[in-house]
Amino acid sequence: MRQVYIVGTGQTPVAEHWDRTAASLAAEALASTLGPLAPARVGALYVANALGGALGVQSQLGAAVATAAGWYGVDATTIEAAGASGGVALRQAYLAIASGACDLVAVVGVEKVTDVLDGRLEAGLALSGDADWEGIHGVTATAQWAMLMRRYMHQYGYEAADFAPFPVNAHANGATNASALYRFPISVDKVRAATMVADPLGVLDCSTVADGAAALLLASEGLARELSSVRIRIAGSAVATDTLALHSRPDPLRLDAAARSSSAALRQAGLLFSDIQVLELTDPHGISAVLALEACGFAERGAGVQCGREGAITPGGATPLATGGGCKARGDTVGANGIYQVVELARQLRGEAGKAQVSGAQVALAQCLGGIGVTAATHILLAE
Amino acid sequence: MRQVYIVGTGQTPVAEHWDRTAASLAAEALASTLGPLAPARVGALYVANALGGALGVQSQLGAAVATAAGWYGVDATTIEAAGASGGVALRQAYLAIASGACDLVAVVGVEKVTDVLDGRLEAGLALSGDADWEGIHGVTATAQWAMLMRRYMHQYGYEAADFAPFPVNAHANGATNASALYRFPISVDKVRAATMVADPLGVLDCSTVADGAAALLLASEGLARELSSVRIRIAGSAVATDTLALHSRPDPLRLDAAARSSSAALRQAGLLFSDIQVLELTDPHGISAVLALEACGFAERGAGVQCGREGAITPGGATPLATGGGCKARGDTVGANGIYQVVELARQLRGEAGKAQVSGAQVALAQCLGGIGVTAATHILLAE
């Protein structure tokens, strides 16, 4: 397989973009990836989107985005894997270059959710679980994460307050990110005093679903040498799945797809989890980040929550997380999250992350999950 | 890039499968592709589906199908491109092997549409056009094809009856296919006497949307040699897009994405359209097949409809089409069509097509369209 490099990034602010279509948001994010390159040089376009069909926004988004971007005729593919859509689409874009089929490929994640009013958003989000055995009973992903958090607290002896450092860190970092939905800090006390959503998850333990688009331009090694002074190599790429229904898992606190996709991606890169200097995880709730940290090997089972308590997840810590605000403060763009993650990590690897910069970051891991870890996509990024 | 071979096929009957989930249909089609191989040998699974999100059936279908099939943990990706979903997914599966990332990859197209009662099916199908400028006004794909047929008749001087040989051929062939939705012949007179749907398209000029799943197993050259006595090579693979809205096209009777994806796929295979011995096109209406025949070079502009009149599209003709019944008689499984097409062509290339067999067929072309030719995916298949 050929080597694959990230040579351009772009993003819109995460916000309520009531006056925009999904395709126009995606086109905006794509435009800034190209720089002086002509669109006709792009061999393929991958569009990650979770909810366009479920919300009746638009299907065939690949072609819709190509039209909106003015990339007439381009080979365009739409990928859906709920919250893992971005990472799964990145893997396909990676394979298109690794195969030799293309030298330049764009991938954009886009979500447009805020002008849907009649309960379709909740119904659409619930489709990412087992629609026949979970969704039909009204179980949402938030309710399932709340049950996992309750189980974790019971099994390992923690309080809900032990999870609060995760949203606090996300907001502290989001405050420094001009593209974030929430650009203000919050405190542990505020998190614990917030209105309850799904006990023990309060409103400040929960991400907010919002609109946005983020894009990457990938190139083969030869083209990357021409185009870019700072090159970022995708050194590992893997997707794995778990059972669709949470109730089918023998150990619900183990995110098996997350574990297997991260170990496969690290193996491909020839690295260990301890080599990772900065990471992005699917962190709509503290419990989500905690279970993913454990699945990837950054913490022992039952000890992930301590990464929050001990400051390890802050930009100065051992496992800096959500440096752009994460799902909680950057905003939860569902199918676009996986691309926003990599745009943020590229900013870190280029040393452009300002107050949230992880000093000397050269090796990064991005992992996004669809549903309760049903699909997991992991990528390892190296500054070269 | 490595060579890619088709080493297994499977399909469910096209029907109203009221008692089945999408994932169980897909699992059934996949099961018969594997033969004695263990599921753990499959490196990646691609699921093509157009309407799972829009109909509220299930999202993350990749993982849902993996769960239903018992392929625990497999790298699974869902692809959506309306009626082109199957072909676009096949291209991703092709790239996964061509890249060297996998040696064995499965792709399944599945659609589950018949138990949706409240108008969501029509709304979901309309999303494949421009939702903001076409769908919102109630324009359906059928209405757009009817307008193109009217324009074609006006521009080139034909009658509606000139298009009737296309459904007549489809039904004659479908009558020999045990998996087809409609297994009875119809006559030109019946087609013209049928109830009008969207003038000049009568009900027998229109495909019926139905449930079904079709699957392919792809392998690298080395593995294909081990597994299969008759090997079918994917010699060309290409996807292209056109403008999302029909009204944006300077020449609406030219399916530009179809033209460009077929010429790219033929170029990759080192073949000319005249080398193709049997083909599958997106043919929900005669006009769709006519415009695709012209776009691919099988007929001059304005002359495609004559392929019907002169018997060229029958199994004994020069451009045998819809030998398994096509969209009209096999049934229109939307996102699964592109895989049903290739399952049928594999049957032809293996000489197993019975009464619809094209004598000595060694070279085949499959092309599927999303919406009114918005996305087009073309594959060239060679018996080796």
Question: What string, H for helix and E for strand, traces the elements of chain A in order?
Answer: EHEHEHEHHHHEEEHEHEHHHHEE
Largest interface: A-B, 64 and 64 residues
- Rounded to an integer in angstroms, the radius of gyration calculated over CA atoms of chain A is 19 Å
Q: How much β-strand is present in the residues of chain A? A: 15-25%
The total count of helices of chain A amounts to: 13
- Helix amount of chain A, in percent? 25-40%
The major β-sheet of chain A equals: 9 strands, mixed
Order of strands across the biggest sheet of chain A?
Answer: 3-2-4-7-1-8-11-10-9
The coarse silhouette of chain A is globular
Integer average pLDDT of chain A: 96
Low-pLDDT segments of chain A: none
Structural class of chain A: alpha/beta
Quaternary class: homodimer
Q: Kindly state the number of beta strands of chain A.
A: 11
User: What is the terminal-to-terminal distance of chain A?
Assistant: 18 Å
Give a brief rundown of this model.
The structure is a homodimer of 384-residue chains. Chain A is of the alpha/beta class and 384 residues long. The first copy, chain A, has 13 helices and eleven strands.
